[in-house]
Design brief:
heterodimer, A: 332 residues, mainly alpha, 2 domains, 15 helices, globular, B: mainly alpha, ABC transporter involved in vitamin B12 uptake, BtuC, 2 strands, 70% helix, Branched-chain amino acid ABC transporter permease (chain B), membrane (chain B), transmembrane helix (chain B), transport (chain B), BCAA_transport_permease (chain B)
């Protein structure tokens, strides 16, 4: 609680202390962290790797841009449309996609994103290949735009992490993790595998839709090549893989490494964005080979730190107290 | 008549697509790994062919296939030995997927940085424009040769896997990785050869596709998606299925382009997605 209060205070106060460039970078970090948490919800907890999650980012962002334009209201008030549209798309597409497992699911998601991207580029109603500017940008108060974006991103990140923590310690989260670890055993104790996966998929899409809408709202412009870029999935995946898949702390560590490396390589070292992705990719591949669960679980076990741990140990003490009683009965 | 020509050209393009798919199918069949970097390796082989033909302009670019195939085999062998073998036995089926995806991102960006993001193509001169006229239909020599080559390669691969010692070892390893060890087979080493073979087949597809249409370092993703769609549409059961899947996709793409000239791969992707909806049972199969 105290920790949460401190975080809220930090996020509320940060725009008054940081300059615009750093604030913008912080907003980007927070949004990517939210997306990574959402990708992790699907990959780390539900065992479904999506290589087409950019489609939900794009749906959320386009939904925001178009509704805000039609209704002629400040984009912030139509933000709820973004997660709703992304969730609705996910709920529909889940029916064909959930017939597929593992790599099939991953690549079919990617093909789905490609199809939607191609249709978007063809459709003049949504701006075609050249994209659309935010029609209602004149309604935005630009004195407070960067701070507001930061607060929205910060609030979204905190709520996402708190909600995921709550969820993973609830029976739904336990069911989800049991499916990931052993779906046969989970089914035998009555966990509804399909239902759990479906909920995780829809929630993950909704979160990515909202974060994507905020991200493009910050740019005041959206174009299909940026919105449907497979690099969104690359970023989410690398952050989760490097930090620690299936943990809540992992993506936080991953985002720090992701942006730390980017600022280092493209700043002082003066390398291009391509070499940065090469560096990140090498780190991810090395982590996958050396520590397949990511860096955070290794650190946690070395240092013995517990932050947002939803890990549970088998109830061993109970079995130990059973035995003497049982043997007493035998001897008695 | 123009539609018949489109269908025939689609089928010829399908032979090429079958070639893209077969390497992916081979690796998946033997080690249950979808090599996401397959498309990037194909583009890499196309870059190698372009570099070689710039170095030796007097030699026909198609002859460059021979060194490129050899190089791709070596690269595949090393790639498997150094990277993929480390996760291939992982209890988590997602590990190889994520790892090869990481490798694809590395390769793509290394190619962007080294070769630049410009559009390239492999020029074969007269051959790419030459065509036959049969019963009023115009049929390109190059696509026809590609389809024949694809069919020959499919047949050769089938024969090797069915009737040779190497083929028996590969099939046995695919079935029971643990048991073949009892007969003195090292599964990891078999995997190395299979990945080498897969990338060599991919190199043929990659170079021939570079002759047909231009490419950039970013073309790997669409080549992978086509390869994957070919494999899934054809069913993983047979190589001939992959050829059929390729032909279906090639026809869908060319018909789509006829209706809508800037459709790209949209109609091929749509065909794949519709097939997923109506015939998902054809997606599951286990034999090499």
């Amino acid at each position: 609680m105290a920790c949460a209060a401190v975080l809220i205070a930090v996020i509320a106060g940060a725009p008054f202390l940081l300059n615009e460039g750093i604030l913008r970078l912080a907003t980007e970090c927070l949004l990517l962290l939210t997306m990574a948490q959402m990708w992790n919800l699907l990959a780390g907890y539900a065992g479904l790797v999506s290589l087409g999650h950019q489609v939900f980012i794009a749906f959320g962002a386009y939904a925001l841009f178009l509704t805000s334009g039609w209704l002629e209201v400040t984009p912030i008030w139509v933000l709820p449309v973004a997660p709703l549209v992304a969730a609705a798309v996910a709920a529909i597409i889940a029916f064909p996609l959930f017939r597929l497992r593992d790599a099939y699911f991953s690549i079919a998601m990617w093909v789905f994103a490609e199809i939607i991207g191609a249709f978007t580029m063809k459709s003049q109603a949504v701006g075609g290949t050249s994209g659309v500017p935010l029609a209602t940008s004149k309604l935005i108060d630009f004195d407070w735009f960067e701070p507001t974006m930061f607060w929205l991103a910060g609030g979204l990140t905190l709520i996402t992490i708190a909600a995921l923590y709550k969820m993973m310690t609830s029976s739904f989260g336990l069911g989800l993790m049991s499916v990931r670890d052993n779906d046969l055993a989970a089914m035998s104790v009555g966990v509804d595998v399909r239902h759990n996966r479906f909920i995780a998929f829809v929630l993950s899409a909704a979160g990515c839709g909202l974060a994507g809408a905020l991200s493009f709202m910050g740019n005041l412009f959206i174009a299909p090549l940026a919105a449907f870029d497979v690099n969104w999935s690359v970023y989410m995946m690398f952050i989760v893989i490097i930090g620690g898949i299936g943990t809540l702390e992992g993506p936080i560590l991953g985002v720090i490494i992701f942006f730390g490396l980017r600022e280092l390589m493209t700043g002082p070292l003066g390398l291009s964005g391509g070499w940065y992705l090469v560096g990140l990719g090498i780190i991810a591949v090395v982590v996958m080979i050396v520590a397949p669960r990511g860096i955070w679980p290794v650190l946690r076990d070395r240092l013995g730190v517990r932050l947002l741990d939803v890990h549970r140990a088998a109830p061993r003490p109970a079995a130990a107290t059973m035995l003497p009683g049982a043997s007493e009965r035998v001897t008695g | 008549m123009i539609w018949v020509e489109t269908l025939i050209n689609g089928a010829l393009l399908g032979g090429l697509y079958g070639l893209l798919g077969i390497g992916l199918a081979l690796v998946f069949g033997v080690m249950r790994v979808v090599n996401i970097a397959h498309g990037e390796f194909m583009v890499l082989s196309a870059f190698c062919a372009v570099l070689l033909s710039n170095l030796f302009p007097q030699v026909s670019p198609l002859l460059m296939l021979i060194p490129v195939i050899a190089l791709s085999f070596a690269v595949g062998w090393l790639y498997q030995a150094a990277i993929v073998n480390r996760v291939v036995t992982s209890p988590d089926p997602l590990s190889p997927l994520l790892l090869t995806f990481g490798v694809s991102v590395i390769l793509r960006n290394v190619m962007v940085e080294i070769f630049g993001a410009d559009v390239r193509s492999l020029q074969v001169g007269e051959l790419s424009r030459a065509s036959l006229e049969i019963a009023g239909l115009n049929i390109g020599i190059m696509p026809l040769l590609t389809l024949v080559l694809a069919a020959l390669l499919f047949m050769a691969l089938q024969l090797v896997l069915r009737h040779t010692e190497f083929g028996r070892i590969v099939r046995a390893t695919a079935d029971r990785r643990d048991i073949v060890r009892l007969s003195g087979v090292k599964p990891d080493r078999v995997y190395n050869y299979v990945m080498g073979l897969s990338l060599a087949l991919g190199a043929i597809g990659g170079v021939l596709l570079a002759v047909r249409s231009s490419f950039t370092p970013f073309s790997g993703a669409e080549r992978l998606l086509i390869a994957f769609e070919v494999v899934v549409l054809g069913g993983l059961g047979s190589f001939w299925g992959a050829l059929l899947g390729g032909i279906a996709l090639g026809m869908a793409q060319l018909i789509g382009l006829k209706i809508d000239p800037n459709a790209g791969l949209l109609y091929a992707h749509l065909l794949f997605f519709i097939m997923l909806l109506i015939r998902p049972s054809g997606l599951v199969s286990s034999r090499v």
